[in-house]
Specification:
Elements (H helix, E strand, L loop, with lengths): L2 H18 L1 H21 L11 H31 L2 H6 L5 H31 L6 H25 L9 H15 L12 H9 L1 H13 L15 H22 L8
Helix pairs in contact: 1-5, 2-3, 2-5, 3-5, 3-6, 3-7, 3-9, 5-6, 6-9, 6-10, 9-10
Length: about 260
């Protein structure tokens, strides 16, 4: 079998295993949707200076949270569990290369992230009257989405090396996820409300740029004035996400191990 064939086959196995785990299935999709419903309902009648409702701003920003939560946490916790229960050790004795295994995991993450984004967008349209963007914005959505999924997945693989016990994976992986949401303009808008040093820290990581990019896709041009620099900065969004894809890949190559006994 070719590496591509093994990757697709592994992806199908990963997807079937995930779908059969009802708890993981419900929690992965329900939690971001629940947060959107809460924030959108509580602040839904508030309007920004650009005339866009707060619920619509939350919807666009929460797409970034959905991708991060799905790609980073699912990839990291999945790898930690496979390493602990011996799945990776058994696969090491098969002809499957590590690249096919990781691509299979990536296919799972891609499908889940796409489904999560679709659910959040659907909620925004049906519950909060968010208009769908024009066709050219969907092109921008595609490259922002793919770069976001790749970067978050690779970082999830790298951080999984820190998880020695799969039972602790959720706690370890969710700490940076929750922290970055609050400082990256997902839960707090506009970001200018945050201290300058927090904004500087958030600007290093990809989440701020993911959220800003998705706001460009789904919000009207009038909302651009609410961004920190008064611009969508799509060039910088692409640059930062691209850099994190490279950084994530390097970290994966440096930290990946087949079992917890490896250094």
């Amino acid at each position: 079998m070719s590496t591509i064939t093994m990757s697709v086959s592994r992806g199908q196995v990963e997807l079937l295993q995930f779908v059969r785990d009802k708890t993981a299935l419900i929690f992965t999709f329900a939690f971001p949707a629940m947060l959107l419903l809460l924030f959108g309902t509580i602040f839904g009648d508030d309007y920004t200076d650009s005339g866009v409702s707060a619920s619509q701003v939350f919807t666009a920003s929460m797409v970034a949270y959905g991708v991060l939560n799905t790609a980073f946490v699912t990839m990291g916790s999945g790898l930690a569990l496979d390493r602990e229960d011996g799945t990776l050790k058994r696969l090491r004795g098969t002809p499957m290369p590590v690249s096919a295994y990781l691509v299979g995991k990536a296919l799972l993450v891609l499908v889940l992230s796409l489904a999560e984004a679709a659910l959040l967008i659907l909620m925004g349209v049906l519950v909060f009257d968010m208009p769908l963007p024009p066709a050219d914005h969907w092109i921008t959505f595609t490259w922002i989405f793919l770069l976001s999924v790749i970067a978050c997945s690779l970082l999830g693989v790298a951080v999984s090396a820190l998880v020695r016990n799969a039972r602790n994976a959720g706690g370890i992986l969710n700490v940076p996820v929750v922290a970055l949401q609050f400082v990256s303009g997902v839960f707090i808008q506009p970001m200018s409300q945050l201290p300058e040093w927090l904004i500087s820290v958030a600007s290093i990581f990809p989440v701020r740029w993911m959220a800003q990019g998705f706001r460009y896709v789904f919000l009207p041009a009038s909302a651009e004035s609410q961004e920190l620099n008064g611009s969508w900065e799509l060039g910088r969004v692409a640059l930062v996400l691209g850099v994190w894809c490279v950084v994530g890949l390097v970290l994966c190559l440096m930290t990946f191990r087949w079992n917890n006994s490896e250094k």
